């Protein structure tokens, strides 16, 4: 059972008439060794859960009636995780796309099971087209697009209420960031009424400090019309992407596309460096996401914040070891005399006696026997078995 704290915020209509699309098909190549043995959505995070669990927790907390999984790589492992931890949530039904009927007919797939491959996709818009019969089925007027690698704590209901009140055909989440970071994201320009005038993916020379948080609400009828316009250009006439094609085309056509300011913490975990630094940001006081508000799917009793160490601990620290400003995942082991500084230590990892690790990620099942500073660049050798799950 996953712990999610409900609240009553939002429009009385809530997310009635909204269907979710969870984009979970990326390879995660920029995550390097972190995705050598698992798909990106299943990378452990914050000593408590996996990356995908933040979007699931937000969907459940907001009362999203149905969420359709759009995945490609190592899909069986992801499906097994979702069925174990999220498939019994009242009010939110998970739909597994072309595999839904097969999966509903029997138990969750066991180790060694491989689901049939889905069609290849060139971009996120292709994921929508490939799953059109599930996403655009009767019963929903709007589509909520989520990503499986974003870390945030959010209630979609007020956003949906604003979307409806404005008569928008698209409402996109936006947040202000330092101008130097804008080229990492989709840059957004709006008028004073927050109507979107431009969305430029990863601009070389930013003219705005407003970025797209990559979750959005789309009117299904408008989305289908724009997708039809784009596919009419031919296979090589567009980039097959929501941020690069679908939303800019809606703006170009003069359709009402509005921005919705996202307050509080939000992070797109795209690289090993961001994976480490964004977890360390959770240690700041006040916490961007309090430990008690983190989704819980990893094994163990849940992490605790140790103020004397400025660390998030899912594992014990023995006498004689030093842990400072770090995240220890459940199932890892820090030996006496070891020093862990500004680092993230994943499940099954061991930091040996007398070893210092600084500003790094110790990979799942890895044993570090000599001092290390800086990020890992290669996967570990097989060690102690799979990352533990919370049952």
UniProtKB/TrEMBL annotation:
Sections of the chain in a coiled coil: none
Start and end residues of each stretch annotated as Disordered: 368-391
Pfam family of the protein (one): Hexapep_GlmU
One annotated GO molecular function: glucose-1-phosphate adenylyltransferase activity
UniProt entry keywords in alphabetical sequence: Nucleotide-binding, Nucleotidyltransferase, Transferase
Glucose-1-phosphate adenylyltransferase/Bifunctional protein GlmU-like C-terminal hexapeptide domain segment(s): 319-367
KW Transferase (keyword) present: yes
Gene3D superfamilies for this protein: Hexapeptide repeat proteins, Spore Coat Polysaccharide Biosynthesis Protein SpsA, Chain A
Residue span, Nucleotidyl transferase domain: 22-283
GO process annotations (BP): glycogen biosynthetic process
Protein family according to the UniProt entry: Belongs to the bacterial/plant glucose-1-phosphate adenylyltransferase family.
Name of this chain's protein: Sugar phosphate nucleotidyltransferase
Species, as recorded: Kitasatospora camelliae
